[in-house]
Design brief:
The complex is a heterodimer.
Chain A (H helix, E strand, L loop, with lengths): L11 E10 L2 E7 L3 H7 L6 E2 L6 E2 L12 E5 L5 E6 L9 E5 L13 H4 L8 H5 L4 H15 L14 E13 L3 H12 L4 E4 L16 E2 L2 E2 H14 L3 E4 L2 E7 L3 E7 L14 E13 L3 E3 L12 E3 H11 L6 E6 L3 H11 L3 E7 L7 H8 L4 E3 L3 E6 L3 E6 L2 E4 L2 E5 L2 E3 L2 H5 L4 E4 L4 E4 L5 E3 L9 H5 L3 E2 L21 E3 L4 E2 H9 L5 H8 L12 H12 L3 H4 L13 H5 L11 E2 L3 H6 L3 E5 L2 E6 L7 H14 L2 E4 L4 E6 L3 H8 L12 E7 L5 E11 L2 E6 L4 H14 L7 E4 L4 E7 L3 H5 L3 E2 L12 E7 L2 E7 L7 E7 L3 H9 L9 E2 L2 H10 L40 H4 L4 E8 L11 E2 L13 E9 L4 E9 L8 E6 L2 E8 L14
Chain B lengths: L8 H5 L8 E4 L4 E7 L14 E4 L2 E7 L2 E6 L3 H7 L4 E5 L4 E7 L3 H5 L16 E6 L2 E9 L2 E7 L3 H12 L4
Antiparallel strand pairs in B: 1-7, 2-5, 2-6, 3-4, 4-5, 7-10, 8-9, 9-10
The chains are: A alpha+beta, B alpha+beta.
Chain lengths: 964, 170
């Protein structure tokens, strides 16, 4: 049986679309929504309610729909739950399912909850499932989650693409109904940059539901077409449809979710599914219209009961009738317009039941003239039917019907204005909160309480009925039982009354206790009714009760839209060092160091990590290894005061460092703790090449720039990040000099001419180099700095060297860590944790006490910084050489003491050392240097590991190997 | 002398042709950061956040005492700064240049960059900004042409962000 009108609506009757709902095949037309197409087939039952699993039909025609939430499945992981059927545009092959029912919509086992509803009042979770506490996680919560709720979240990865767009404009108009269109045209005419967005597929808003209106002598459809064409033709106007302004963020930043392809059966894969617009507007004009309020009476939620305006929208947009025989229950004139239009379309209007004792005006006259029975002062107090309404209780009179259309009046949509912290005032005449203008924003049209089309459009209008009249709260004389206020959250008038009886006074508390106005719906249809009921219970007025805060998003936004392109490879920049591709091609395993990918180790054949690292370490100790150190932070410090600046930033002295020499520098925070370290080379009198830890590059530059700009602005020195300018190839091992010698020109590499801790400029492989003679391994070592894009070729040239040495062994960060630990070199961030002083590390010799000041100097004299039992860096050797300590493990003096034990330190670094044939570790231990030779314990699950405290240096104590 | 390898070599070679937003990896050049409060004998731009090309040398004033100079050769800049209180640092390899051009170029940039690229950002304007999570220098070289200076390790990320954004204009 079809409920489609023979003509009319804004659908394309020549385009028939096939779709399925809960597995059953249907057809609709292009221009239908899922809801209108189902209604055209007489299907009202589209969902089950959140808590009681009551059968629910379509209440509204748009974004405010609380009941008809469906799951749309496009296959291949493209599925979306909780879509409003009233917003899902039909396309060929659409597959939709109902939600929150089992096994089917018509027979839902969960509906037993409805029979138990007197045991499931507001706050029942809090009352019923109090104890035992352990039951909450295991039993109560899983059971409640299974029984109550919305759709199921998809589990497969979302294959769709999403994009973001930033935009700026002079005027952004939110909503393209009559008020928004009028504001947009006015703004466009001034030549300003204008954007207008609307969540519907086409412009017009409520004007589309007024085909009989005559605007300035033109039919409303013609006026709308002209306005649409006018805006589209202007170069200074951007029009967004299917675009919901969902959030207001500071300084007029509006978040808009644009649905680009959801309405298309076979979308172009180059198009994003959705686009998040972040629009910064000098002025925002809010033209978001109003939502119609339901009447609150018992069983007001049966399928077939809908808002009067929704029925009108389905008729005029989609050519769909809600039923054959309707009762119209209202307190507002606009329902008369719906009754008249449906009457004209062939629907029997069994009665108009008007709550008002003596409604007057053109609408009432017209209804009477059309022969529609109008009952005034008549309250609707009940309904019958199960999966579809069958009757309405008007006073004491049951009236048979298949449809009830209701209207308690209209609630201005204040969501965006409220999100902007806009001020509101209460208008008692219309029982509405109304927005007040703010700097940079104003509200126009219905959302500002202006419903008169002529006033909105500024031209004479005939043939339209203004929505005069309103009612709030429970229908007089009706029971509060099963009288739904918030349909989406299954909150009844009785629940609200109960909450106030239980002592809740603040509307914010009532909201949380009952859940009214929460979740995705954000109280679009329910807010004012809920406030009125609470106000009535408390003996207050609505403005005294106040309005709850509307929160973004106005309607749900997909995670994909929020993420945009920031997924997978584009979630974060993955920084690759210049020689990355070579390492990848040669089997390197990479580790993440900040956002960098660094080669961790280079396994050969079936080598384990342990084997590979051991081999790499032995190669460095016995021959020569090669290492990509490019990620080290680098800062070029240049200017006449460069040395003075470094003198103030580092603990040690820089003024006497000769050109061509390097020095290891230690930098403190203002609090006196080790902040960063690195080798600094003096390139010229006024030019230093500073290196930092890999992770510290940006932090150290900021730290330096901060001091330069705020503390030392008189210094003539400038800082430039050169981390990415240089590829750095560390060549380490006894054969290092022999390896590089054939490739280097312009530098005397002899130990006399080029001693340890020197820097020279020359060429390697014909490209300019800053060649450092430094060592982080304890072996003879060089760090070859070449301009980054030459790095790979220089690396390959070094690898290709076969005489006079064998080609070098590439090693990764793990071998680097082991080699430096064997030498007791600290890593800032591993041996230190932000509470470690230079003396704690045994580096008090790095402090130039004669300097007048340096960052952190004063803090080093604080009493706590000099106490004897501070944690100090020591070496640890396990009693059994093969025992490997865990980094972070706690250290105690006596493992037999009662728990909690007194912990006196922790392991900072621990490795198996192939060179030494045993494990080694470093640790911070209270008064550690006074404990040399003593035995301590590291309690671990199942055993206490016995360790001996030693100097934190395990190999080549004299440093003889530095010279090769 | 050994060969140079751009971090964009692979990506640029595989890029589809999209005339509405062309994406090009620009060839290498000498890049110099000049920091000074002194007046040097160099034909460099004086307006803040503006770039000027003179004699094949582009100068971008990014701060009160900061210029980025793109030139065939860095030598003359070092020479001009010699004897002044100034810092000249060669950053030729620190960053790479990407050009995006075409009627949709600004839109594609605004997919990841929050700046107003309308009349507030005319040709000749330049600034340091963010593209997604990467710092870039953005220079509008023409009504529909933009030159991006990008840190070398961020270049593939920036390239792929722009590639993702311009796909819908293919």
């Amino acid at each position: 049986m079809s409920f489609r009108t023979p003509t009319g609506g804004r659908i394309d009757r020549n385009r028939v679309l096939n779709f399925t709902f809960d597995g059953r095949a249907y057809t609709g037309h292009h221009g239908d929504t899922l809801a209108s197409a189902l209604l055209a087939k007489g299907v009202h039952l589209m969902g089950r309610s959140f808590k009681y699993h009551r059968p629910r039909g379509v209440l509204a025609a748009g974004i405010e729909e609380p009941n008809a939430l469906v799951h749309v499945d496009r296959g291949g992981g493209r599925d979306a739950p909780n879509l409003r059927a009233t917003q899902v545009e039909l396309y060929e092959g659409l597959v939709a399912r109902s939600q929150n029912r089992s096994p089917s919509l018509a027979f839902d086992l969960g509906a037993v909850a409805g029979l138990l509803s007197r045991f499931l009042p507001a706050g029942f979770y809090y009352k019923t499932f109090m104890w035992p506490a352990s039951f909450w996680k295991r039993l109560y919560e899983p059971a409640i989650r299974a029984a109550a709720g919305l759709g199921r979240a998809p589990t497969a990865a979302d294959p769709d693409r999403y994009l973001h767009r930033y935009a700026h404009c002079d005027v952004l108009i939110v909503g393209a109904g009559p008020a928004g269109l009028t504001a947009a045209r006015a703004a466009a005419a001034t030549g300003q940059r204008v954007m207008i967005c609307d969540e519907q597929p086409e412009l017009g808003g409520s004007l589309r539901d007024e085909p009989g209106a005559v605007i300035g002598g033109r039919a409303s459809a013609a006026w709308l077409a002209a306005a649409t064409t006018d805006l589209a033709s202007r170069g200074n106007v951007t029009v967004l449809t299917r675009a919901t302004a969902f959030g207001w963020y500071p300084d007029n930043l509006i978040g808009i979710a644009e649905r680009v392809t959801d309405h298309i059966a076979m979308p172009d894969p180059n198009l994003p599914r959705e686009r998040l617009w972040q629009v910064r507007a000098s002025e925002v004009i809010i033209a978001t219209g109003a939502h119609e309020r339901p009447l609150v009476f018992p069983d007001n939620d049966r399928p077939g009961i809908m808002l009067a305006g929704a029925a009108r929208a389905f008729l005029h947009r989609h050519g769909v009738l809600p039923g054959r025989r309707a009762v119209v229950a209202t307190a507002c004139d606009s329902a008369y317009a719906a009754a008249l239009d449906l009457h004209a379309a062939g629907v029997t209007i069994a009665a108009i039941a008007d709550l008002r004792a003596n409604p007057t005006g053109a609408a009432i006259e017209a209804a009477r003239a059309a022969g529609i029975p109008v009952r005034t002062g008549c309250a609707i107090t009940g309904s019958t039917g199960r999966l579809r309404v069958t009757g309405a209780l008007l006073g004491s009179d049951w009236v048979a019907c298949d449809t009830i259309l209701m209207s308690a009046g209209w609630t201005p949509s204040l969501h965006l204005q409220s999100q902007s912290r806009g001020k509101l005032r209460f208008d008692a005449a219309t029982a509405s909160f109304l927005p007040m203008a703010q700097p940079g924003q104003r509200s126009v049209g219905a959302c500002a309480g202006e419903f008169d089309l002529a006033a909105i459009l500024g031209v004479p209008v005939s043939g339209a009925i203004s929505p005069n009249g309103s009612h709030t709260g429970l229908v007089p004389g009706a029971s509060a039982k099963r009288a739904f206020v918030d349909f989406q959250n299954d909150v009844t008038a009785r629940d609200l009354a109960l909450a106030t009886q239980e002592g809740f006074r603040s509307i914010e508390h009532v909201k949380r206790y009952t859940t009214t106005g929460m979740a995705t719906d954000q109280g679009k249809t329910s807010n004012i009714n809920a406030l009125a009921i609470v106000a009535g219970q408390l003996g207050n007025t609505i403005p005294e009760v106040g309005l709850t805060t509307f929160r973004p998003p106005y309607s749900p936004v997909t995670f994909g839209t929020i993420a945009g392109a920031s997924r997978g490879d584009l979630f974060d920049p993955e920084r690759r060092a210049p020689m990355h591709d070579w390492a990848a091609a040669h089997g390197a395993v990479f580790e993440d160091v900040g956002t960098w990918k660094r080669a961790w180790y280079f396994p050969r054949g079936r080598e384990t990590m342990h084997d590979a690292v051991a081999r790499e370490c032995r190669a460095v100790r016995n021959a020569v290894g090669i290492f990509d150190a490019s990620t080290l932070g680098k800062i070029e410090v240049v200017g006449p005061d460069a040395a003075e600046f470094l003198n103030r930033l580092y603990t040690n002295s820089w003024k006497k460092l000769g050109v061509g020499r390097c020095r290891y520098g230690l930098m403190l925070s203002e609090a006196g703790f080790v902040w960063d370290d690195g080798v600094v080379g003096r390139i010229a009198e006024d030019r230093f090449h500073v290196t930092t830890t890999t992770g510290g590059a940006a932090r150290v530059l900021n730290h330096m720039e901060d001091y330069l700009q705020t503390e030392f602005p008189e210094l003539l020195v400038w800082l430039t990040s050169t981390t990415e300018q240089w590829a750095v190839i560390a060549v380490q091992g006894p054969d290092a000099r022999a390896l590089i010698a054939p490739l280097v020109a312009g530098i005397d590499l002899s130990p006399e001419a080029f001693p340890h801790m020197s820097i020279r400029e020359g060429t390697i492989c014909g490209v300019p180099t800053r060649l450092f003679r430094v060592s982080f391994t304890g072996e003879l070592g060089f760090e070859i700095n070449v301009p980054a894009e030459y790095g790979p070729a220089v690396w390959e040239a070094l690898m290709a060297q076969e005489a006079p040495t064998r080609s070098p062994t590439p090693y990764g960060t793990e071998a680097m860590h082991v080699l430096r630990a064997e030498k007791g070199f600290v890593i800032v961030g591993q041996e230190t944790d932000g509470t470690v002083t230079p003396d704690d590390l045994g580096l008090s010799g790095m402090i130039a006490r004669s300097k007048p000041d340096f960052v952190g100097k004063r803090s080093l004299r604080r009493p706590d910084m000099v106490v004897a039992n501070r944690k100090q860096l020591v070496g640890l050797l396990t009693e059994k050489p093969d025992d490997l300590l865990e980094e972070g493990a706690q250290i105690v003096e006596d493992p037999r003491q009662p728990i909690p034990m007194r912990m006196i330190g922790h392991v900072t670094s621990s490795y198996p050392s192939a060179t030494l044939g045993r494990s080694i570790a470093m640790a911070l231990v209270e008064g550690g240097r006074a404990r040399m030779g003593s035995t301590l314990y590291v309690p671990m699950p199942g055993q206490d590991i016995t360790v001996r405290v030693v100097e934190p240096i395990f190999y080549d104590r004299t440093g003889a190997r530095l010279d090769g | 002398m050994v060969d140079r390898r751009s971090p964009l070599a692979g990506l640029a070679g595989a890029a589809p042709s999209i005339p509405a937003a062309r994406l090009v990896a620009l060839p290498p050049c000498a890049r110099v950061v000049l920091r000074t409060a002194a007046v040097l004998d160099l034909p460099i731009v004086q307006d803040i956040n503006r770039a000027v090309v003179a004699g094949g040398v582009a100068s971008l004033r990014l701060g009160p005492d900061e210029w980025l100079i793109l030139a065939p050769d860095a030598g003359p800049i070092f020479a001009a700064a010699s004897g002044h209180a100034a810092a000249v640092v060669d950053v030729s390899h620190r960053q790479v240049a990407i050009e995006i051009a075409g009627p949709r170029a600004a839109e594609v940039l605004n997919g990841h960059c929050a700046l107003d690229l309308g009349a507030a950002f005319p040709p000749g304007m330049c600034t340091r900004t963010l593209l997604g999570k990467a710092e870039i220098v953005l220079w509008r070289t023409g009504a529909d042409e933009f030159h991006l200076e990008v840190g070398r390790s961020f270049a593939p990320y920036v390239w792929q962000c722009l590639e993702e954004g311009r796909r819908e204009h293919a």
